[in-house]
Amino acid sequence: MDKLINQFELGLFVWQVLIFVGLIFLLKKFAWKPILDAVNDREEGIKNALLSAENARKEMQNLQADNQRILQEARLERDNMLKDAREMKEKMVADAKNEAQVQGLKMIEQAKAAIEGEKNAAMAELKLQVSTLSLSIAEKLLKDELSNKEAQTKLVEKMLGDVKLN
Amino acid sequence: MVISNKPLRFIIATLVACLPLISFANPEQDTVKVQTEVAHQATEEGHEGAHAEPTDVKSKIKAFIGHHVLDSHDFTFFSDEVEGKHYGFSLPVIIWDNGLHVFSSAKFEHGEAVAESNGNYYKINHHDGKIYKTDASGTITEDEKTGFPTNVRPIDFSITKTVLSIMIASLLMFLIFAGLAKSYAKNKGIASGVGRIFEPVVLYIRDEIAIPNIGEKHYKKYMSYLLTIFFFVLFLNIFGLMPFGINVTGNLTITFSLAILTFLITNLTANKNYWGHIFWMPGVPKAMRIVLAPIELLGIFIKPFSLMIRLYANIFAGHIVLMSIIGLMFIFKSWLGSTLSFGLSFVLSILEILVAFLQAYIFTMLSALYFGSAVEEHHHEEAH
Q1: What's the pLDDT band for A159 if we cut at 50, 70, 90?
Q2: Interface with A, mutate which of B252, B263, B311 (most A CBs under 10 A)
Q3: Are the beta carbons of B184 and A16 separated by less than 8 Å?
Q4: Which site among B101, B171, B227 would you substitute to test the A interface, given the most A Cβ atoms closer than 10 Å to its Cβ?
Q5: What is the pLDDT of residue B55?
Q6: How many whole angstroms separate alpha carbon A20 and alpha carbon B177?
Q7: What ipTM, to 2 d.p.?
Q8: Which InterPro entries match (chain B) (predicted)?
Q9: What average pLDDT does chain B have?
Q10: In chain B, where the domains are located
Q11: Which of B105, B128, B199, B228 is the mutation pick for testing A, counting most A CBs within 10 A?
C-alpha cells in the first residue's frame, strides 16, 4: 500500500486532470457533438426514408386496389349495359312481333268485314236482279197467259223446271 | 475436399496479430541485448549512494522492467551501455520549490548528475525515478525502515514521458475525431477519412454502453465523458504496446485521476433517488436501513477505487509479464528456451491487445453503470 501511495505523483495528477478535462470539453465541442448530431441526423434520415418508402408502397397498393376496383366496376357496368341492351333488343323484337300480329289481325278483320260487306252488297244486287227478272218473267208470263192458256201452263211448268234445275 | 476457410483465417489473424509484436519486440531486444553483452563487464561509471547498478543479467532485466513501468523525465528509446549513451530526447523539468524552476532534464544526465537551478540542487532517485532536493554532492538519505528517501520532494510539474504521451494521445484523438466530425458536413452526412474506422465504435458506445446503462433520457449528458474516456484509455493502452516503452494507463496516478472524475461526475449529477438508496434504503426493515447506510456509503468510494485498481493492475501486470518473458530470452540464451519464450511473448502480446480493448471497454462500461445508478428514476417500488 505504501508503495502504491508513493507512486502517486501530484504534478502528474494535475497535468492529467488538466489535459483530460480540457480534452473532454474540446472534443465535446469539436467532435462528439457534431459526430453524434450527424449520426442522429443520418439515422433520422434513414428512418424517414424507410417510412416514406413504406408509405409510397402503401399508396401504390391503394392505387392498385383502386385501379382494380375501378376496373371491376367498369366490367360490371359493361356487363349490365350488355344485359340491358340484350333485354331491350328482345323487348323490341317482342313488341314488334306483337304489333305486327295485332296489325295483321286487324287487317284480316277488316278484310273479312270488307268481304262480308261486298258479299251482302252482291247478294242485295242479286236479289234485286232476281226480283227484276222475276217481275219481267212474271210480266211475260202474264202476257202469254193472257194469250194462250196452254202455253201459259207450259211455260210455268217449264220455268219451274228450270228453277228446279237451278 | 472439405477444407474450410478456417486455416486461412487463422493465418491472417496470426499475421495481423504479429504486426504490433514485430515493432514491439525489436527495441526492447536491442536494449536488453546491449545490457547482456556487457554483463560481464564492470560498470565503469560508478553510482553514488548505497545502491550500485546491478550487473548480472537477471537483475538488469529486473531493473530495466522496474524503470520501464515508472514515469521518467526523459524519453529514451534505447540506450547503449558500453558507451553510456542514451538514444532519445530530454524533456522539460518544471519544479515548484519556493519559486518556479524550469530546466531541461538533460541536466540530470539520466539520473547520474546533480542538477542545479537557482542555487538549489536536485537529483533523480534511481529507484522511483522522482526528483529530490539534495545538497551539492547529491546525497540521498534513505529511511531505514521503509527504504524511501527522506529528502524533501519539490512539487514536480515536469513534462514527463507520461505527460508527453498524454499530450500526444490527446492531440491524436483531437485530430482524428475533429476530422471525423468535419467529414460529415463535407460528405453529406457520411463519414470519410481515418476517423471513419472509429464511427462504429462511437455508435457502439452510444447504443451498447450508454443507452442500456444510463437510459434513453439521461445518456446524452454523459456521452462526451464516456467517449473521451474510452478512446483515451484505449489509445494509451495501445501506445503502451508500441515500441516506445510508454506505460501510461499502468500508472496509478493516471488511473486515479480517471477514477476520481467518474466518482465526481457520479456524485455531482446524482438525483434524490440515488442518495435515498444510500442513506435510507427503501423496501427493507428500518433496522436494516441503519446497517445498510454505512455499507452503501463505503460502496460510493469502493466503486471508483476498483476502477482505478483494475485498470492500473491489468496494464501494469501486462507490461511486467510481457517484458519478463521477453527478458527470459536473454537469460536462456539457447535456441530452444529463447524460441519458446519468444513464442510465449508473442501469444501474450496478442492477449495484451485484447486486454487493451477490454480494459477500455470495462472502464467505460462501469462508469456508465455508475452514472446510470446516479440518475435512475423513481420506479423501483413495483420491483420490490
Answers
A1: confident
A2: B252
A3: no
A4: B227
A5: 67
A6: 15
A7: 0.78
A8: ATP_synth_F0_asu (IPR000568), ATP_synth_F0_asu_bact/mt (IPR045083), F0_ATP_A_sf (IPR035908)
A9: 80
A10: 40-159, 162-374
A11: B228
Interchain proximity A11–B158, CB inside 8 Å? yes
Residues in contact with A68: Cβ distance below 8 Å, sequence separation at least 6, in sequence order: none
Domain residue extents for chain A: 14-165
Q: Yes or no: say if B184 and B190 are a contact pair by the CB < 8 Å rule.
A: yes
Least confident of B53-67, B294-308, B366-380: B53-67
Q: Which of B70, B126, B113, B122 is nearest to B93 (CA)?
A: B122
Q: Nearest CA to CA, how far is A51 from chain B (Å)?
A: 19
CA-based end-to-end distance of chain A: 173
Q: What is the pLDDT of residues B177-218, one digit of tens each?
A: 998 888 888 877 778 888 888 989 999 999 999 999 998 888
- Residue whose entry in the numeric block shows the C-alpha cell 219481267: A136
Range in B16-20, B226-230, B252-256, B321-325 the model is least confident about: B16-20
Task: Please say whether the beta carbons of B160 and A12 come within 8 A.
Answer: yes
Q: Using CA atoms, how far apart are residues B222 and B364, in angstroms rounded to an integer?
A: 11
Angle of the B6-37 helix axis to the B286-332 helix axis, nearest 10: 70
* Predicted pLDDT at B12: 56
Q: Which residue does chain B place closest to A2, by CA atoms? A: B146
**Which amino acid type is present at position B285?**
P
Q: What is the mean pLDDT of chain A?
A: 88
Q: A90-99 burial string, b = 16+ CB within 10 Å, else e?
A: eeeeeeeeee
Q: Which of B156, B159, B180 sits opposite A31 (nearest CB)?
A: B180
What CA–CA distance (Å, rounded) separates B205 from B223? Answer: 8
Cα A51 to chain centroid, rounded:
45
Type of residue found at B283: G
pTM to 2 decimal places? 0.71
